[in-house]
Amino acid sequence: MPLSAAISRRHWLSSAAGGALGLSLGSLLQARAAGSESASDASAGAPPIRACILVFYYGGPSHLETFDPKPDAPADVRGEFKPISTSVPGLAISEHLPKLSRWMHKAAIIRSMSHQARLHDSASIHVLTGRPLEGPDRELFSPLPQFYPSFGGAVAYMQRHAGRVLPFAALPYEFHNVVTTPAQGGGFLGAEFDPLRIEADPANLAYQVKMFQPADDLGIGRMAERRGLLETLDPAATTDRRLREQLDRAFRLLSSQAIREAVDITREPLATREQYGLPKLPLAPGPTGNGGHNGFARELRGQNLLLARRLVEAGVPFVNVYDFRQQGQNWDSHADNFGQHKEFLLPPADQALAALIEDLDQRGLLDTTLVVALGEFGRTPKINAQGGRDHWPDCYSVLLAGGGVTGGAVYGASDRIGAYPAVDPATPGDLAATIYWRFGLDPAAEIHDQSGRPHRLAGGEPIKRLFGAG
User: Fold this and answer.
1) Hey, which of 35, 169, 267, 341 would disulfide with 448, CB 3.0 to 4.6 Å?
2) What share of the chain has pLDDT > 90, as a percent?
3) Residue 111: CB partners within 8 Å, gap ≥ 6?
4) What distance in Å separates the CA atoms of residue 56 and residue 58, rounded to the nearest whole number?
């Protein structure tokens, strides 16, 4: 970009810093992250993890058709699917998860997750931040600022002095129902702890690698020269600590060959891509909608998890993968629950998640990487008149794999029809505390919002029994 007196200070700074990280000047100058950095031992059991991959199945997969089948329940509850045995004696899951069934000795299930947010947005906020939406549960029809940080944003904040090139990534887009769901960024910790969003190139079943590449005529040396010139022209680029930190991050990111190569998923062997699920090209465009994300997005479900593994391998500590509902392939299965799960939803999810666990294991990354797979809620025990199941946050299941988890462990239990926790109820706050604790962070540590009010890092307690501790 040529220098000109006509270039405003705001435009220049936002181009230099925000352009690389998706952050505006306002976010850079106004972002505030207060509080003390705390850590605690991971207690007895496995050492702290280095990374977490959170796979979020927006819309609400049915726990009864996945990880908590009820073969002895009445017909209008148990449904059409049968349970199958797994690699763990006595542990059964849905017959439509055959690939995952072979890896349950590396995974654990929480069968008693419970909260009271009954709509998609309020439930997503609770599940992805560990805190309920303040005020009455409601759908969001107008933008609402995010308050509490997402897990990745909180981890990035607590590890902010670690010098990570990329502390938090999310893909393949922001998810939303009517408006973007305010549960995906740094919240009151500031926009500097938002994830870097890695957008999809669905027509080529790849990702936007160009966002990590300087212009052809702008090598590392010239970028350094331009940064030096910026600091000469605008003293704030040197004296404002937060702005300087963001400039440092932008420069490191554009200079990082490891991140650039990780995002270039075409470098992955074809056999590995196919293991995760790679459809054949060319693809006919799918229906548009859901915020402009067309039907190609569903074809990237497996590749999203492969990219998450590549990012973890490149040193990214936290990766969110959003499996957003798609036209005709909808986790929100109010109608034709069994056909949707059997034909469209479970096969790609089963293939991709099993491939991720196996791939991490073979590469020696599974012990240090926690995989969390969940939706914002489950589905009603009773099948409705349309052959579907409706929203049900009162009891549902979460899968954890790797990260030191005790393979084959089950925490909690639902009642005989999967309606309510019968043993050891768990909350999203407990899940949040578990993730932070596994990173070696103290869930009771204080973080502060922009008004200076203290908040506990997590509102629950870690589920240590899943990790041979506590």
Assistant:
1) 35
2) 66
3) 63, 67, 68, 395, 397, 410, 411, 412, 413, 414
4) 6
Amino acid at the residue 133: L
- For residue range 5-43, what is the model confidence (pLDDT) as tens digits? 332 333 323 333 333 333 322 232 233 233 333 334 444
Report the C-alpha gap between 92 and 420 in whole angstroms: 19
Q: CA–CA separation, 89 vs 454, rounded Å? A: 46
Contact between 470 and 43 (Cβ < 8 Å): yes
Task: Give, for 237, the enclosing helix (H) or strand (E).
Answer: helix 236-239
Q: In terms of Cα–Cα distance, which of 398, 341, 451, 407 is closest to 81?
A: 341
Residue 253, pLDDT score: 74
Tell me the chain's radius of gyration from C-alpha atoms: 22
Tokens describing residue 280: 């054949």
Q: What is the per-residue DSSP string for 260-298?
A: HHHH-GGGS-HHHHHHH--PPSP-------TTT--GGGG
Closest CA to 209 of 199, 219, 218, 217: 199
Which structural domains are found in the chain, ordered by start? 47-205+279-467 (3.40.720.10)
Strand, helix or coil for residue 308: helix
SS3 401: strand
Give the whole-angstrom CA distance, residue 138 versus residue 374: 21
Among candidate residues 18, 293, 31, 17, the one with its CA nearest the CA of residue 171: 293
Are 369 and 46 in contact, with CB atoms under 8 Å apart? no
Provide the 3-class DSSP secondary structure of residue 54: strand
CA dihedral 152, 155, 156, 159 (to 10 degrees): -160
Predicted model pTM: 0.84
**Which tops the pLDDT comparison, 235 or 53?**
53
Question: What are 266-279's pLDDT values in tens digits?
Answer: 999 999 999 999 87
DSSP bridge partners of 398? 110
Q: What integer pLDDT is reported at residue 470 of this predicted model?
A: 64
The contacts of residue 455 (CB under 8 Å, 6+ apart) are 148, 446, 447, 448, 449
Environment class of residue 389 by beta-carbon count within 10 Å: exposed (0-12), middle (13-18) or buried (19+)?
A: buried
Q: Which of 89-93, 170-174, 297-301, 418-422 has the lowest mean pLDDT?
A: 297-301
Instruction: Calculate the CA 113 to chain-centre distance.
Output: 18
Mean pLDDT of 59-63: 97
Rounded to an integer, what distance in angstroms lies between the CA atom of residue 356 and that of residue 100?
10
Which pLDDT belongs to residue 204? 82
Tell me if residue 193 falls in helix, strand or coil. Answer: helix
Query: What pLDDT is recorded for position 345?
Result: 93
